Amino acid sequence: MMDILMYLFETYIHSDAELQVDQDELEDELLRAGFHQKEIYKALHWLEELAALQQSDAHSAMATCAATSMRVYTAQEMERLDLEARGFLLFLEQIQVLTSETREMVIDRVMGLETNEFELDDLKWIILMVLFNVPGNENAYTLMEELLYSKEQGILH
Asked: Which residue did the predictor score with more confidence, 42 or 13?
């Protein structure tokens, strides 16, 4: 599923390709690219849920969290997000790439993935997707993109 999400993100978002694509046409393209129908449906549903998050009132309440508050992860979240991933989320909050609201959106989308394998690189892509989809986060998106792509130069481990 992550492969499909990354493919879509790089093809339609990052490349400035036409964003208004018919869903049937998109499914056909993904099938031609070698992805399985079941995984395509899961990825498209995941993206629909991401779009719905920005309109949800549940996450806007997180914006009022005190600066001194601390995020406590559930057992399921800690199973999916290892110590390195949780530390990375905290780091991004500290350098103001993520807010408490966008952090919660990232965690929601991570938990929405139907996969057994999840790595730090997957988390970085999900963060990019969330920041791209939430208006007003252009600077945070740019910084996260720089962090992601500067990995090859050894800046980000």
From this structure: 42
